[in-house]
Each structure stands twice: as structure tokens, then as C-alpha cells.
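Sequence, please.
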């Protein structure tokens, strides 16, 4: 990856993000904790998440042109997201990143940047405190 190259360019464009998101949502579908948060039909989340990530990592602004500013916290506010949901979400996303970067032979620094972003962003989505048992 060159200094002027975006992550979007380094991974080969939108197909990478579509594959990443498909892998991620395949994992989500098998997770009862997360499926309690997501709709039964994951077609729209797959499409919008791939579009958001492609744009975020330097691709064309298609997501914002269609949906406006991402406003991630606001868009996720209606859903109960605790540490538990965050951890399940992050584990699936990191596994999907690992699998997808291997398939596409993506440089390690790109994988590290993506992992760092997902760790930070998933923590920022927590909007409900865990209840203690004592």
C-alpha cells in the first residue's frame, strides 16, 4: 500500500467489502445473541454495511448519497447494545476480516487498521449498561 493509496484501493475495491460483509452476516445468522438485535432478513443490512465500509475506507460516496451522513450512534440507538452484543459483533467481524484479508492477500497494516477501527467503533455503539447480579 502506498502513502497515497486508500484502503479501498489496496483491497481491490467494493468486492472486498461485499465479501467481508457477507462472511460477517453469515456468522451473525448463527448467533442467537445478535439475531435478537437484527431483522430476520439480513439483505438490507448486508447491502448498507458493505456500502458504508467501502465509503469509509476511501471508496465512492454512494452510501452518503443514498442515506445521508452515517450517524452510526443514532442509527443504532433503537437497539439494545450491551458489552455482550458488542463482543459477539466484534468477534464475528474480526473473524470475517481475518478470513477476507487472507483470501485477498491484503497487507498486514490494512488488516491492523481495520481491526482497530472495528474495535473502537463497536465499543462506541454500546448504549445500555450491563445489569449486575449483586
Amino acid at each position: 500500500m502506498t502513502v497515497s493509496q486508500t484502503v479501498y484501493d489496496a483491497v481491490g475495491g467494493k468486492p472486498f467489502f461485499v465479501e467481508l460483509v457477507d462472511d460477517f452476516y453469515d456468522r451473525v445468522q448463527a448467533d442467537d445473541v445478535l439475531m435478537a438485535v437484527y431483522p430476520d432478513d439480513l439483505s438490507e443490512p448486508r447491502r448498507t454495511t458493505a456500502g458504508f465500509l467501502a465509503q469509509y475506507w476511501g471508496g465512492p460516496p454512494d452510501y452518503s448519497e443514498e442515506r445521508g451522513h452515517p450517524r452510526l450512534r443514532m442509527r443504532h440507538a433503537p437497539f439494545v447494545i450491551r458489552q455482550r452484543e458488542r463482543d459477539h459483533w466484534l468477534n464475528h467481524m474480526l473473524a470475517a476480516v481475518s478470513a477476507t484479508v487472507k483470501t485477498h492477500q491484503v497487507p498486514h497494516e490494512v488488516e491492523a487498521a481495520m481491526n482497530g477501527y472495528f474495535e473502537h467503533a463497536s465499543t462506541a455503539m454500546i448504549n445500555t449498561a450491563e445489569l449486575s447480579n449483586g
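The radius of gyration is 15 Å.
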